[in-house]
């Protein structure tokens, strides 16, 4: 699972994208219009049509509703062929679109920034706006995708989120003080949800200096999947040895975490300091 599979022109995933594009164009709809009706982003529609993203169950069901299974095409049926392909399901390849929405539990460690699932729009926008050579269009797409990603926490079967955040994150200025106050207020509100736990980790913890990562616990006995950050792109794997290594690091970091009630008190104190 270390490299994404090459695309077979005759594969169900390619057929799904081709049929999706054909019916969209026949209906004279733009990718943006379809995205609006499916409740996702134009970028996600583009990736579905180019077969660089494997459709979720809800993607297929909504497309069937949108096009009414025109000309005998069943997107749910094509998707069933996709996930039945030898070598394992391809949806493992996109964390935000295919792993997080299915997770029972997400454990995260963030040594530098507020975790993406808990960022305010202003915090995320400031971070993305500082990316090298980013255009205004790319900025809006990334912010929209980040906000879209967070919707999993509002769904009825939302995953449990266990977030470990380095204490230094509370003192790292992102934008202006008002932005920081809003962000920490958002963390405190999120922590009141029963499915979200936020713990601050003592800044002297060395075990977490290697970088941010997330561990997703999936249903039906499927193996855990890990997402680890790098400067270029995230790395996703369910390799047993690598997952076990990340689990050991997570437990080593957790030993340095303050209890939740103390962690929230620290966030509240820092929030007041950002004036």
Automatic annotation (TrEMBL):
Pfam families attached to this UniProt entry: DUF5753, HTH_31
Limits of the HTH cro/C1-type domain: 20-73
InterPro entries: Cro/C1-type_HTH, DUF5753, Lambda_DNA-bd_dom_sf
Protein origin, superkingdom: Bacteria
Name used for this protein in its record: Helix-turn-helix domain-containing protein
Species in which this protein is naturally found: Streptosporangium amethystogenes subsp. fukuiense
